Amino acid sequence: MKKRVLSLILVVAMAVSMLMACGKDNKEDDKAASGTNTQIKVADVKPTLKLLGSSSTADLNDTIEAKVIEEATGYTVEYHGLPAENANQALMLTLANDNDYDLVTMNQNQFTTLRANGALLALNDYIDAIAPELWDCISEDAWKGVSDEEGNVYALPKLYSAETEVASFMVVRMDLCRKAGITELPTTISEFKNMLVTLKNYYGDQYIILSGPYNPAKTGNRMNIPMNISSAFGIYNDWMVDKDGKVIYMTEHENFDEMMTFMNDLYKEGIIDIDYASNSSTGVDEKLASGKAIIAMNSRETLNTTFATLEESGLTENDIEYIGALHGDDGTCTYMQTAQYGAFTGIPVKNAKNAADSIAWIAEKVKNQELIAIGEEGVHFNWVDGYPVPIQPKFTDERNKSSSLTHFADMETYQIQFSARLQKTEIMWKAYTNCTIAANENEPEIFVPAYFAYCNSETYATGNTALLKSLNDYIALLVTGQRNLDSDMKTFNADFENFGGEDMRKELQAWYDAAFK
Amino acid sequence: MKDKKMKNKKIRSRSAKQVSFIANLMCIILLILVLVPVLHVAALAFSRGTAQLAGKVYLWPVDFQIEGLKMVMTQTGFLRSLLNSIYITVVGVVISLVVQILFAYPLSRPKLKGRNFLTAVLAIAMLFSGGLVPTYMVINGLGLVNTFWAVILPGAMSTFNMLLIRNYFEGLPEGVIESAYIDGAGDLQALFKVVLPMSTPIISTVSLLTAISYWNSYFGPSIYLTEGDKMTLQVFIRNLMADTQTITEQLERTEETIGLLSVTTIQSVVTVLAAVPMIAIYPLCQRFLKQGITIGSEKG
Amino acid sequence: MKNRKSKKIQRKPISKKIKDTIKYIRLHPTLYLMLIPGLVLLAIFEFLPYYGITIAFKDYNIFAADNPLAAIGASEWVGFANFQKLFGSSDFMRVLKNTIVINGLRIIILFPIPIIVAIFLREVRSKKFMSVTQTAIYIPYFFSWAVISGIFNSLLGSYGVVNTVITKLGFERVGFFQDPEIFRGVLLFTDGWKSVGYNVVLFMATLVAISPELYEAAKIDGANKWQEICYITLPSILPTIVMVLILRVGNLLTKGFEQILVLYNPAVYDSADIIGTYVYRMGIGQMDFSRSAALGLFNSVVSATLVIGTNYISKKLVKRSLW
User: Fold this and answer.
1) Is the domain of B19 the same as that of B161?
2) How large is the greatest C-alpha to C-alpha distance in chain C, in angstroms?
3) Which of A99, A168, A181, C243 has its Cβ near the most Cβ atoms within 10 Å?
4) Which of residues 52-81 of C touch B (CB under 8 A)?
5) Predicted structure pTM score
6) Cβ atoms < 10 Å from Cβ of A314
7) Buried b (16+ CB within 10 A) or exposed e, A251-282
8) How far apart are CA A389 and CA B205, in angstroms?
9) Which range among A168-172, B112-116, B167-171, C208-212 has the greatest average pLDDT?
């Protein structure tokens, strides 16, 4: 209820600020658009649009998915990709000079920097004139993160495919567990530890009992401590909010020491993979797939290939189970919502001549969202229990790349549409059902709002990546005992200071106070 | 006297045996050290993804597949980026060679005046760089962004390779060059008729080094060629490496194809594809190296 | 004799020197025309961008003006603040030490290997065997570090092939990627593995060009094979050796960035973090052109000092120099 009132206020505030923004025509950012302000309309002949995106977009030209979009929208779009490395430099240099890209797709760092420097066009007038329905596609909060203080929106954000997904879980080899006398999955942290100890006592050094960490760039897990273990300690993110509404960092959480001691004990007992500090996510996958590990931290991304490998060594679906968010012994369980930005699509100030058509193209895509995302019913998918189930191989052959081609979506329908991708295999769907759907149905109270997902602070957006890396390194070394909570906390705190942690805290606090209090 | 000669011969043949034994042993050790991992990668490229994940692949493909090769080669960008890279490499090698040989020859002349100035120019160019932004602005100002010249020209005057050529020129018998001048040859004639024919070893070597550096270059192409149809093979490859998931997802079409490829097998395919052209030109270069011996000895 | 002559030339009056130069240029105009393409390329792509070095002393914002060029002028001077940001941290000395130790070891251990390999390759009787070896060892140069990291992880990882053998034999596992000292060995080995064959190429050209007459003459003089190598082969490739060595020393601070970035992990930061990787980690997610300009300038200055120094030493010791 409170939230609804809040969003209403926000809408009003935004409408007012938008009106005010229209009134001012001396705004620098609108330089390119000024003059067209009064009569924004699409061109008579649809122009070919040039889009500059991340490296994976480079190979989307001439795909079936791209052709479907072309037919549905009437626009021909050339997709160009930034290099996988040096993307930032290439993007900055390209946009700082005259260029002919009509649309540019960015990550959060890039977007925040470009917006702060006025390299992106304010889109409000265009959306109002061309496709006002786009305003309803995502939440007010999500719009707020791409706006400046006056409510000018600088990008159309693509949001993460699900708002409440337990994206971090552990894969368990039940066949091995059953041999050791374990038939039930743990739900609390103590049960979990008992399970690990039982396995260790039974198997000794024959297997890696618990392998990890798992945080490949693309998944929801960003931490070197699985969020489904930290949930039992009330820890859900690097930045959190305590009971009094104060922003705290993970290392300042009252249970941080306890959690790290718990992990370090497991390591000392030979339960956690001795490579914990040096493992890559691929390495963890390989250990699970090759049968070296009994339990592995994981996420859905590579599950299919891993399971196919295990299947070839004689396992069935029943031999694989998943551990979702664990509870503390006192019932504590906090898991952060997965609401977050995926990518941002904006229009460069230096080349805004096709801005109206660019917005029109996006709007057309949203109108045809189902067709583009999952295809035609009966051809590419069927509805089962309210979820789209793909018809293979047609679905993969003709719609696999459409998620890379989605730049902005109506999130309410997109979440459902996206789930088709999780139904491509039973094993993946089982993971989603057991961890995510179960949590949503049985204990939705575990989900903590993603307070800072839409925070638009430049300090935070550009500085936190390095700080997070530093925290993750610290955590990995705490697990393996190469760092010590008593003696090395000071060093980390110094790093925290160096990376601008305190400045971020101030901005996050201000954001929290404005948005949630 | 005769005894001494005999003794010398004995020592000689014994030392020759030692050297040849060590040389052969060295080759065998090197071959093992290098080929075992190389064959492993080649085997991975043609193994089923699940076999790789299960750790079953050593030096020979397990559950042979060429789907990975097919998938990478049919990615829309592959062929174009391959052709782009070949074009850049070929044109780059030709231009670099011309520029560097023309520069190295005067520098190798013993009596050249102004050497100190040239030395200073080379030293400064070699040691200091203006950095990314101003270089980009120069290239942008010349209108070269998103043209292949942006990656060909800046590297064409490699001081290192030029000095390699100059070193070689300086080692040539000065008498032969001198006599050409005495016979009335001009500088160009001396260079093209006398010096270059004796220089096949260094020219083939520098061609190879230049080809490798154009072929392997990543930074320039990644910054200056953002348009998709200008992409080079190295950029394409690193993009693919960073996003192998797209390919593994593409295989989730039926029960049978899942697990056909893994991240590592795709990376191996890409590695093999990128290395083959450069490995193929090496024997060619070696042939010229051998040729160099005979020509060098005839003239020398 | 020669020395005295050159001294005499030096004592010539300057006007005479200029006259000589003009005379030489008149005699060989083509020689100077030949220099033009190279000089033009250097002027455009090397010297013209030098004005951008100022970015290192500014708080450069690429969007500060209409284009990045004008933005250089529009950005604020900050003196040495960018350098302070880089080197002010307490970690910097550790990182600098790592850089020097690791790259120093590369020079001491890895630099001689391709020279030795090239010399002995020449002595292989079967030319076919020689070319096969030569081609084979050159292949790894085309493997990216990401792939090499994969290979050596599966070989040397805690559960990899090598450790399986070691544990089967009853020994303790070796933490190739966890033990700070051993990891440096892994760095050296993988670098050698990747680059020896490529570096052999550098020396081969000079080796094959050694006139066979020299060897014939040595044979007649009764030299054995070892003496041939020491007194003919080595001196013939000395200029190339010196040149490559000087440049290697010049790269002391910058070498190995990509390799270490891919291979290392938090467990070995203490021994393997070099300047490049450290600065990279500090700057992830930020787009700080000034910082990279400052680092580039610092590296250039150090490298220039090292190159000039080594060049001087080699001039004194072996009468050979880069220029």
Assistant:
1) no
2) 81
3) A168
4) 52-53, 55-56, 60, 62, 67-69, 72
5) 0.90
6) 8
7) bebebbeebbebbbebbeeebbbbbbbbbbbb
8) 59
9) A168-172
Is A305's Cβ below 8 Å from some Cβ in B?
Answer: yes
Does C117 reach chain B within 8 Å, measured CB to CB?
yes
Residues from chain A contacting residue B75 (CB–CB below 8 Å): 59
Q: Are residues C46 and C164 in the same domain?
A: no
C170 touches chain A (CB under 8 A): no
CB within 8 Å: B226 and A80: yes
Q: Do B134 and C20 touch (CB under 8 A)?
A: no
pLDDT tens for C61-110 read: 999 888 899 999 999 999 999 999 888 888 899 999 999 999 999 999 99
* Best residue of B50, B145, B217, B218 to probe chain A, by most A CBs closer than 10 Å: B50
d(C-alpha A344, C-alpha C280), whole Å:
24
Whether residue B20 is found in the same domain as residue B142: no
Q: Where in chain A is the domain with CATH 3.40.190.10?
A: 2-162+343-374, 169-336+451-516
> How confident is residue A17, by pLDDT bands cut at 50, 70 and 90?
very low
Tell me if B96 is assigned to some domain: yes
| Residue B154 and residue B213 share a domain | yes
* Least reliable range by pLDDT among A53-67, A140-154, B87-101, C30-44: A53-67
Q: Do B50 and A289 touch (CB under 8 A)?
A: yes
Q: What is the pLDDT of residues A387-433, one digit of tens each?
A: 999 999 999 999 999 989 999 999 999 999 999 999 999 999 999 99
Residue-number span of the structural domain to which C120 is assigned: 89-318
Q: Do residues B155 and B96 lie in contact, with contact meaning Cβ atoms separated by under 8 Å? A: yes
Tell me the per-residue pLDDT of C177-190, one tens digit each, with 9 for 90 and over: 999 999 999 999 99
Helices C180-208 and C234-250 cross at an angle (nearest 10°) of 140
Chain A contact set for C287 (CB, 8 A): 88-89, 92, 109-110, 113, 462
Kindly report whether the peptide bond that precedes residue A213 is cis, defined as omega within 30 degrees of 0. yes
Claim to verify: residue C135 and residue C243 sit in the same structural domain: yes
Q: Any idea which fold A169-336+451-516 has?
A: D-Maltodextrin-Binding Protein; domain 2 (3.40.190)
**Residues C112-132: what's their mean pLDDT?**
93
Closest Cα to residue A281, out of A372, A355, A342, A220?
A220
Question: Residues A55-103: pLDDT tens digits?
Answer: 877 678 889 999 999 999 999 999 999 999 899 999 999 999 999 999 9
The domain tally of chain B equals: 2
Q: Is A342 helix (H, G, I), strand (E, B) or coil?
A: strand
Neighbouring chains to C with at least 3 Cβ pairs closer than 8 Å: A, B
Report CB contact under 8 Å: B130, C52.
yes
Which positions in chain C touch B123 (Cβ < 8 Å)? 307-308, 322-323
* CB-closest option in C68, C267, C287 to A278: C267
Q: Which of A214, A298, A213, A220 is nearest to A263 (CA)?
A: A213
pLDDT at B219 over 70: yes
Looking at residue A220, its pLDDT comes to: 60
Of C32, C48, C120, the CB nearest to B26: C120
Query: Does A484 contact chain C (CB < 8 Å)?
Result: no
Domain range for B257 is 67-299
Residue to mutate among B95, B100, B139, B205, with most C CBs inside 10 A, is B205
In a domain, B54, yes or no: no
Structural domain count of chain C: 2
More confident residue, C305 or B2: C305
Predicted local confidence at residue B1, as pLDDT: 56
Same domain, B33 and B173: no
The structure tokens 């797209």 sit at B246
Q: Does residue C216 fall inside a structural domain?
A: yes
Third-level CATH fold of A2-162+343-374: D-Maltodextrin-Binding Protein; domain 2 (3.40.190)
